């Protein structure tokens, strides 16, 4: 095969699961990308929010790449999985180091301005020096970590002002899963972050988050971020567009799948990542049939359910591990949501699933929403993960005996 033939240049798989979908693996969202890009280019405060696995991070990455092509310096920090506020500050400094790698004198200026908290280190495994906090800061009081975090942002504000006065493109800070600051930043950490943002007039702030229950609390009246942000909600991709795109991607990679797109969306639910995960499993099945002839390689909507349950089986250990972290009330509440979502507080449901009272059910559901296992919808609560719900229905719902649901 010639090295530049279309078949060789085509991505090896039409669907990406895990990591961030970009390039040919990413579709739609042009409006959202434009809104985020414009916010990165102009001093503002934008909050991008929506349920998990909707593609927010891919939108942010695409927008940041577009802004960088226009000369904007974008420092990215992801709060997820951090333990201390010092960890957040270190991630931010690593991103600043990457942004300034082509102007080492700027890195030296940053280190000098933030000394002694910040040092410029040289790691042979990295192509450029890296700004890092002093190692003992993680073990020091949160007030000291706040001071270091604020100093980093203040220095970025000064850098943005310098660039603005020189007529150069701006500087932006992009904070993914920013709501986690309330867990790593100490008491009233949200008010602490708001006060920093309000002081900065040259730096652009784009924040993003997927823990919607917590975000709604933080945006509430008398809370830190009430009317503080311009808001951009990320919901499901247009179903007709996504169904057509899924089928087109399969066809261009050698698997005919007429009509499967709509069924995938129906079975997998509204989250983009869940839909793509199911599409990928289905494509692999079609690919395995291709060698048995064109008809054998064609997928139909009837194949979708088999692919869905194959994912449920493959993730059994993941679901079982999650299940074992839950209390007995939480396990029984999840059984009830799977079986009787419209009658969760009825006496029959409470008795059947061993929940002592309606108030206990309400508190338990609230806890499951906070943990991200359930989400609130107009009609009540629903599972966040369709594969976890299917596992509950198949493996643990039968434990309560006939009559469930």
Please tell me about this protein's structure.
There is one protein chain. With 405 residues, the chain is of the alpha/beta class. The chain has three domains: 205 residues, P-loop containing nucleotide triphosphate hydrolases (Rossmann fold), CATH 3.40.50.300; 71 residues, no CATH class; 75 residues, Arc Repressor Mutant, subunit A (Orthogonal Bundle), CATH 1.10.10. 51% of the residues lie in helices and 11% in strands. The protein has 18 helices and nine strands. α4 packs parallel to α6, α10 packs across α11 and α13 packs across α18. It is globular, with a radius of gyration of 24 Å. The N terminus is likely disordered.
Q: What attributes characterize this protein structure?
A:
405 residues, alpha/beta, Rossmann fold, Arc Repressor Mutant, subunit A, globular, disordered N terminus
Provide a brief overview of the structure.
By secondary structure, the chain is an alpha/beta fold.
Strand portion: 5-15%
Taking the sheet with the most strands, its summary is: 5 strands, parallel
* Structural Rg: 24 Å
CATH superfamily of the largest domain: P-loop containing nucleotide triphosphate hydrolases
Helix content: 40-55%
What is the number of E strands?
A: 9
Specify the CATH class of the largest domain.
Answer: Alpha Beta
Number of helices: 18
Question: Alpha-carbon distance between the termini?
Answer: 57 Å
What is the CATH topology classification name of the largest domain?
Answer: Rossmann fold
Question: What string, H for helix and E for strand, traces the elements in order?
Answer: HHEHEHHEEHEHHEHEHHHHHHHHEEH
User: Which residues form runs of ≥5 with pLDDT under 50?
Assistant: 1-11
Shape: globular
Coarse structural class = alpha/beta
Tell me the strand order in the biggest sheet.
2-5-6-1-7
Q: Can you name the CATH architecture of the largest domain? A: 3-Layer(aba) Sandwich
Count the domains: 3
Mean pLDDT: 90
